[in-house]
Write a sequence for this structure.
């Protein structure tokens, strides 16, 4: 790749090498990534100037002439940050993270009483206030937004969100117009997959499948560090994946679909029907189980087993090195993860190792981190893009 394309590729290679191995000296970077010392020197100079890398005091290793170690610029003074916006059904979450995906600040933004038609505008105003409150003078790279449904990230468009009833909504442009910042938008299942590849377990960089269980049920598949989007960015719709053993009626006219069986909407409604909680809220159900309600625990284990049976089908189709499951109860309590693992490995024909089935590395911070990663993944893929370089936080 000639000219600027080669430079962009080399810059991304250097930045990812420092992400995975830093702090590391320039010579060490060359040895790890295969670029020439001259190429590494050019790219590290540009990345230092752009504020994405910083020099640390003292030698990196060895003896003789000191070799200055480089690391991602995550310092409290001058270290760039990315904003995250996860748009859920009952609420949204605002966040700030550093270049290693570490959560610096977060806030919930409830949707109660807000109609879907004007919701995105209210979210944008709320996010602007959040960013102003937590403005510490650090450069802000932009905003990453993640939500369920069919999303076209190149356009920043929500093609269809079945619960919020958004269709062909130019969400990225709407948010950017209010905030005055670059905004990247993607499906939340793909966002979590990218966060695992960037910041999570090394196996995720080989291959992974991510199954997201919330009010919207989605999946994502990544191989060799790339998350598959498919034509029209429509990959990952598993709402109607059949769950072995389920007879739950679905709006599509069939029974046993994953969305109708295991979504938060279905679980909350069933919890109310059984008299476990007064409102159809999965967090309330999880709290009830944590305080010792056996009915709540039983229902959560039923869902975990259904999720495990669906996961077995995805394991057999893709046979990934890692299966990541985002589901609230298993993120908070390993006992529910074990239910998922047991059900999946009992049914799968290719996976007999339960350790291949994991929760996201960020735990309860998974969605705030993943949302910001929608923006950060672009920075790590092409750090030379002028519209996504660190910039001073504007007045929003």
């Amino acid at each position: 790749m000639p000219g600027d394309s080669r430079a962009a590729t080399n810059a991304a290679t250097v930045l990812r090498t420092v992400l995975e191995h830093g702090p590391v000296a320039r010579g060490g970077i060359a040895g790890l990534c295969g670029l020439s010392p001259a190429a590494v020197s050019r790219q590290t100079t540009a990345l230092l100037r752009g504020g994405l890398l910083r020099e640390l005091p003292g030698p990196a290793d060895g003896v003789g002439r000191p070799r200055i170690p480089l690391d991602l610029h995550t310092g409290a003074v001058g270290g760039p940050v990315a904003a995250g916006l996860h748009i859920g059904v009952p609420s949204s979450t605002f966040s700030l993270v550093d270049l290693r995906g570490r959560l610096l600040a977060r806030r919930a933004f409830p949707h109660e009483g807000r109609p879907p038609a004007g919701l995105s505008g209210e979210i944008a105003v709320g996010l602007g206030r959040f960013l102003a409150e937590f403005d510490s003078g650090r450069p802000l790279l932009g905003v990453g937004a993640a939500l369920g449904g069919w999303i076209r990230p190149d356009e920043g468009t929500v093609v269809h969100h079945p619960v919020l009833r958004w269709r062909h909504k130019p969400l990225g442009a709407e948010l950017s117009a209010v905030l005055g910042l670059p905004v990247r938008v993607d499906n939340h299942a793909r966002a979590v997959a990218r966060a695992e590849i960037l910041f999570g377990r090394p196996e995720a960089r080989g291959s992974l499948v991510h199954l997201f269980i919330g009010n919207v049920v989605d999946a994502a598949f990544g191989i060799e560090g790339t998350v598959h989007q498919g034509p029209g960015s429509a990959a990952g719709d598993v709402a109607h994946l059949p769950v072995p053993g389920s007879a739950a009626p679905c709006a599509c006219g069939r029974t046993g679909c994953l969305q109708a069986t295991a979504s938060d909407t279905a679980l909350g409604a069933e919890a109310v029907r059984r008299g476990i909680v007064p409102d159809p809220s999965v967090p309330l159900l999880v709290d009830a189980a944590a305080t010792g309600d056996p009915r709540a625990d039983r229902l959560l284990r039923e869902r975990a087993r259904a999720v495990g049976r669906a996961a077995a089908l995805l394991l057999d189709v893709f046979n990934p090195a890692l299966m990541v499951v985002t589901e609230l109860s298993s993120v908070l309590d390993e006992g529910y993860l074990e239910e998922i693992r047991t059900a999946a490995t009992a049914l799968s024909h290719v996976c007999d190792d339960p350790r291949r089935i994991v929760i996201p590395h960020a735990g309860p911070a998974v969605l705030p981190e993943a949302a910001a990663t929608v923006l950060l993944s672009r920075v790590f893929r092409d750090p030379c893009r002028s519209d996504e370089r660190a910039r001073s936080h504007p007045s929003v």
